[in-house]
Amino acid sequence: MKYGVNEQGYYGDFGGAYIPEMLYPNVEELRREYVKILDDPDFKQEFDQLMKDYVGRPSPLYHAKRYSEKYGANIFFKREDLNHTGSHKINNAIGQILLAKRLGKKRIIAETGAGQHGVATATVCALMGIECIVYMGEIDMERQAPNVARMKMLGATVIPATSGSKTLKDATNEALRDWIANPVDTHYIIGSVVGPYPYPEMVAKFQSIISAETKVQLKEHTGSELPQYVLACVGGGSNAMGMFYNFLDDEEVKLVAVEAAGKGVNSGHSAATTALGKEGVLHGSRTILMQSDDGQVVEPYSISAGLDYPGIGPQHAHLYKVNRAQYVSITDEESLNAGLLCCQLEGIIPAIETAHALAYLEKMTFKKDDNVVICISGRGDKDLSTYIKHFGY
Amino acid sequence: MQLFSFNDTTDMNRLNQLFASKNKNLLSIYYTAGYPRLDTTLDIAEALEKAGADFLEIGFPYSDPVADGPTIQHSSQTALDNGMTLNLLFQQLKELRNRVSIPVLLMGYINPIVQYGVERFCKDASAAGVDGVIVPDLPMYEYEMIYRKHFEDNNLSNIFLVTPQTSEERIRKIDGFSNSFIYLLSSSSITGGSLQLSDSIEAYYQRIKDMHLNNPAIIGFGISDNRSFSKACEYANGAIVGSAFVKLLAEENYMEKIPEFIKAIKDSL
Questions:
Q1: Contact with chain B for residue A19, Cβ under 8 A
Q2: Which residues of A are catalytic?
Q3: How many domains in chain B?
């Protein structure tokens, strides 16, 4: 693959494994074993079976007729919101729990922002009967209280991250510290295409089922497996990477990644990483991140907890730098309006993360026959209180 | 691979000179630049030398120190809140060699170095009289590909970490890349834990000792008092105290307490 990873774990200038020596054996074990395990027919069979019977895949590719009329193109929704647990996060969680089992791990740790990845991880741990510890920023625990309760019901221990900004970045730091202290029996299920190599590649592979299915389904709908445009929202970037993955080498397909501008890109309250960031190292990989001139990580802001992250996955940094994908941003206000529009035109309440991708349709111009696929990465139940507060329902 | 010949003292930096003259019971102290106050960096260094520390590790703060426990996280955040930056630290260090003669290492994470510029960082460190650098999240592969040249051009030692889980093959490789000492972690943990001596830890120390490495070994993480320091010195050439000293800096009249703190750790050694 032209845009894929090289043997050293780099996508162009980005990636690598910038980890303390304490994590070297864990990461090396993964690097050595994960491809072998993923290629094992027994693993594939178990993964495919769970995807079908437990997650409910394939997720539908829905031709959104009223959206198509409004925007003057054929708009398709890839319905990851219909997955068990309500988002694309379960695809990766299933893949990694099966991997952890084969590596003989007895304990799972994870970080979570909005709580979707935490819920997905707690779910697969319950399914497999493995101990689960989820780190979550203290502030995120307050604003996503229902997801905290869901994780606890599923048997997970939720530990608040009380350092720094008390959000996703700090939850990730705490999970890494836990892994350092528990190097032998623990597997860290990272929730996005971030972290030291091989995580970004491994998570992208588990999420690539999104675009693999889309190609087959789009061909049934339109006669061609290639759309003109593919859109997805980007925090760390796992749903976007899954949605882009099988289209990367189809250069005629335009890829659009939508970041969170928060209160405006230059408002000082934003998570628009490519617009505001510089190259550096965050959470184990060389990527683009929001930082001060002195190299201190800047606290991001977005109304959407899932996009409230100061970096992006290293493959996204590469796609941005070589212009294979276009990186744009949408404000809180624009995303909330787009979320409401989706409820009213299509009867689908999207996650606020997803609403960022939907909002960008307003800024695009299409030809009548263009086929456009948007990843509906998650459902909006978890965001009801934010929607209600904003619109006064 | 030995970068410096130990017979040729003119090329040796202060670390190599120290190890050539003293090879046991070496005590190194870690603290964070800009903590507890912005301007205390050199006062503390001077006091530690007078009190009998053999070498120093001055931490430059980072917002996301994943290898550090609560004590050093707190000192880093306070230092950042006080306004510490790499630019300012190098300004402060211009006076370093007028006030301190023992070896000094800088310790911190890779991202501030990347932003400062790797080459500029190495030049400025060397010009300030810094002898080595410890960057916990700079792995061997990246060091070899990108950083090594700049470190070597500026006569800076790069210190690698070894943990109980590091394979013998990798320890040999690290020994080959090192040119002053190897930093042995007492356990796989973040900083600020307490050393839980066990048969397996002592077996690990013994295993390293029996490898007869080219470089001296210094034990760090969890060394906080005379007992843990003495035990570490049975197996290695010395040990590093970090969090326990940073805690002292939070007390009142900490400058006056430094001699007593060092004396208590080194007691009878």
A1: yes
A2: 89, 111, 377
A3: 1
